[in-house]
Please model this.
Amino acid sequence: MGRWSSSQPARGGFRVPRPLHAAAAPFVAAVLAGVAALVASPRVPLLLASGFILLAGFRALSAVRDRSRLRRQADVLLETGVRVHPQSQLLVWRAEELTGRHNRKSLARSLHGIVRELERPSPVTARPLNRRGIRPHLELLRALADRVALLDRPVAAQGMVLVERLLTDGLASPLYVGGRRGDLRAAVGACFDALDRDAGQARSDVPTAHRLVLSSGRGQ
Model:
């Protein structure tokens, strides 16, 4: 895949929206107003406290929305295999978030959870999984989970975007009922390839990964 470099220096400095940080000042003001209500006439301070609490909630929700928008913008670029230029602060931030330990553990748990759910089906499930399409590829999904969970081995941001989309895009992922009827084996294989791309390691960190892809393909 042809890839291109992106340099998007943030104007005026790039800052990641942080919901708790955005809500901190009005929340502190609300607390102070509440304290004032206890020692003085309660009516005005309580009204002020209520207003500050509403402002804190609004600012937190706005920060969540802005952070989600920035993630989507960065993911569109990272999914293409764009090289992360050090001056592109948006891409540097998102790549670090995607490949960080917390995100890798979270996505690996989700993949393992899907495998366990199909191995020990429960009468009640919150996820509309495409069980018929997934069952032939359980070992392949397990290998992908193991690859993501190998924290001592690097992964490429492009691969993590693909893994995240596989797990969260209910309209397109072949994991879910109602998703596009795609080839799950090909989708997982693309995740493997992208995870190892420019990750500074051999093509496969899970010894059976590519054998699973190939053997699953022969069985189609």
Notes: Residues 75 and 161 are 6 Å apart (CA to CA). The first helix runs from residue 19 to 39.
